From TrEMBL:
Domain DUF302: 66-119
The keyword DNA repair appears for this protein: no
Record organism: Methylomonas denitrificans
Protein name (Swiss-Prot/TrEMBL): DUF302 domain-containing protein
SUPFAM superfamilies found in the cross-reference section: TT1751-like
Amino acid sequence: MFKRVVIFASLPLIASCAAQSLHTEEVTYYQVETSKPYDEVLAELEVAIAEHNFRITGHSRVGKVIRDRGATNFPEYDTVQFCNLTLAKVVLEITPHAIGYMPCNVVTYQFDGKTIVRTHLLPEDTDNPALNKFAKEMNPQLQQIVDFAAEQ
């Protein structure tokens, strides 16, 4: 009898320790492939970002750094981060949890003779209608940036 009481009394405590996430949306990616030279893709990416009124906040040339450390013939891998502070303010006023999507990010890398250009999109199906509306306006811009960088 005592064991049953202990077990039932501890169930709420055990349940309260279970991890609950704030968001359960799935991260969606937008990706294109191109046979355009890698350096051209990066140059076009910078142009597209500027044309959409974003500013580059970081550029990590992971592949180059690995080659510089002695790994000859290591493929290209780059990550370009960018932001528009006006839009950042808008989305953070909608929800502070949106900080997890900032800054915007595009990765480029070589795979099977192609250059891959990829970005994550904002979720459009959350329980926050204002965030969904913002995402539906922002995602086409992110896709246009990727498309411009990759188009022949």
